[in-house]
Amino acid sequence: MSFEINGKVALVTGANRGIGKSIVETLLAHGAKKVYAAVRNPQSAQPLVEKYGDRVVPVEVDLQTQETIQAAASAASDVELVINNAGVYKSESPLSSAAFDALQFEMDVNVYGLIRVAQAFAPVLKNNGGGVFVQLNSVVSIKTFLSAATYSASKAAAYSITQALREELAGQGTAVMSVHPGPIATEMADHAGFTDIAEPPSVVAEAIVAALASGEFHVFPDAMAKQFHSGYESYAKNFIEADMAEA
């Protein structure tokens, strides 16, 4: 399903920095009428408000707190595009003494948070004609890296949930997109040790806008991600994106 952002209303979680901020700015550059900047601290989105005026509306969203997400869904009742970008990263291996705490935190935000956002905003999107739900996953959702094993596990689970949402939300006319960046120039990439090869957040934001227009489900935006896609594309087309009920 093609979705042109011009004139539309969007909501972006984790909108105050990194990829999220770039997504907000890119949506506005492509003609979005309004973007709700969904952040834990609405004050952190003030620079966006100062730059774009009332086209940016900060709303409080903590992916660990259903009440804030539900309140945001009530406040942003005109949303036609939801981009769940917010996430957390811990660099722990399975045998680390911190593995359990890291995985619990990452699952709560990256997976349960995704479900919370989807449950709150699916009815909003339905009421506004269907729209699109976009989930920021990662290349580590299809390939685990030892140095980020718990994060990889949480993103693999988020990717699995994203696939289920694609199937479930199709019935209400809502398209779903799964975005799989590699190293992007953010604090997370710095922490993971990928600073030297990281690409700018705008690469992800522009790829999302292009995929909205073309109706793609999978998006592999940067150079490393495209390498993953070259090996994964056949499987994705024949199994993930295919209607297995017709197989």
Describe what this molecule looks like in 3D.
Keywords: Oxidoreductase. InterPro entries: KR_dom, NAD(P)-bd_dom_sf, Sc_DH/Rdtase_CS, SDR_fam. Its EC number is 1.-.-.-. Residues 8-187 form the Ketoreductase domain. GO terms for molecular function: oxidoreductase activity. By secondary structure, the chain is an alpha/beta fold. It has a single domain (9-231), classed as NAD(P)-binding Rossmann-like Domain (Rossmann fold), CATH 3.40.50.720. It is 47% helix and 13% strand. It is built from eight helices and seven strands. It has helices at residues 18-29, 46-52, 66-75, 99-127, 149-169, 187-192, 201-214, 223-240, and strands spanning 9-13, 34-39, 56-60, 81-84, 132-136, 175-179, 218-219. It has a seven-stranded parallel sheet with strand order 3-2-1-4-5-6-7, with helices on both faces. Helix 2 (46-52) links the parallel strand 2 and strand 3 (56-60). Helix 3 (66-75) packs parallel to helix 4. The model has no long low-confidence stretch (mean pLDDT 94).
